[in-house]
Amino acid sequence: MRFPVTIRHRANKVKIYAPAGEFAYYRLAYTVAGKRRMQTFAAYSDARQAGERIVRDLANGSQAAALSASQSRDALAAFERLEAFRQKTGQKISLLSAVSQHCEAAGKLNGRTVAEAVDGFLGTVVTVKRKDLSEAVEDFILADEPRTKSANGQRAQLSAEYTRIRALRLRHFAKALPGHAVCDLTKQHLDVFFKAMADASPKARNHHRAGIKQFLQWSVRNDYLSPTNRLLEADAMRTEHANNGDIGIYTAKEFRALLEAAEGPLQPLIAIGGFCGLRTAELLRLEWEDVWRVEGHIEISQTKSKTRSRRLIAICPVLADWLRTHRNSTGKLWQGTDRCFHKASSEVCERAEVPRKPNALRHSFCSFHFILHGNENLTAAQAGNSPAMIHQHYKGLATKAEAEKWFAVTPARGANIISITAAVNT
Q1: I need a surface site. Which of 16, 159, 166, 366 has the fewest CB within 10 A?
Q2: Are 262 and 361 in contact (CB under 8 A)?
Q3: What is the Cα–Cα distance from 134 to 173, expressed in whole angstroms?
């Protein structure tokens, strides 16, 4: 047999070279894709078998012959790995796609491995936990309970009454969607819920929206809801323009009737509400030290103000007359609960035969003070509000003559002015 032996198939050929010198292997040489390739074999028969296969592959257009033995082994192992991945995940990825993605990622990692990058990324991704909606609502309510407690004499972060009402609204929301997990909520769920509240007022729906928004934000913080959720973009979550209706105020005659019908601590509270315009919550936090600490003024400290900013309210001469018998009183003006206060206030209205009007003492003060002084900035400073709100809501509600009558409601001779101390002792 003469070497090199040439094996041909169509226009393709390979050559087998005999061992030479100390090199005891047969060499198989061929050209593919413009590059010369060579493989070695210990036996001639193996070299010939490989040569016949290669010339047929080249004739059929296969590029497999371009791979070296080690490259062939790597390619086969890669295909096996991709097939195992497909069986495990159901994702089918080509070898070219896998290599391309790896090279692109590796080129951006500045020497770090792809595995390191993946571990770092997964450390920043939230894994959402399934949590029943009703259970999550109860956890949210319980989590906020400590914020309703005052510590070290400081005002609580949240009003207990506010959180109680918000809890009722959220339980209503959860009851409307039984069997749902928080992570299953969709915009459609919110739309259906608020559609069922069509008979409620816009203000009531807005209060529900505020509570649900706080709950959803808490759910994100606790990994019950994805941070990329878009629930707040639901049409039903858009705040509605609430028509507050007419602002109710009392006349001077009704004010006097309320004062004279009030007993015990209610009388100074009504007087301060009407002559200083305090909010109900501010009245119920008020202590007698706040009334007497600054001469001629009632001090609303940061811990007692709704806006958490201190303000001083001038004690007008007529209010001073109503408070004269309480000069030695101490402690809180109202020592009962909010509910007891509202119940007692309703009873006073019944005795005085005056209809109960929401926040009417504050509204009356703002209206009469504004028309009397003609200065929304001064009234806003007294009421703890903005000048724009004063001008928008209280302009034109009363005449100057009515305002003068209001601030002339003095205690009549022999009027029922009972000090708190006397009321307690009796």
Answers
A1: 159
A2: no
A3: 9
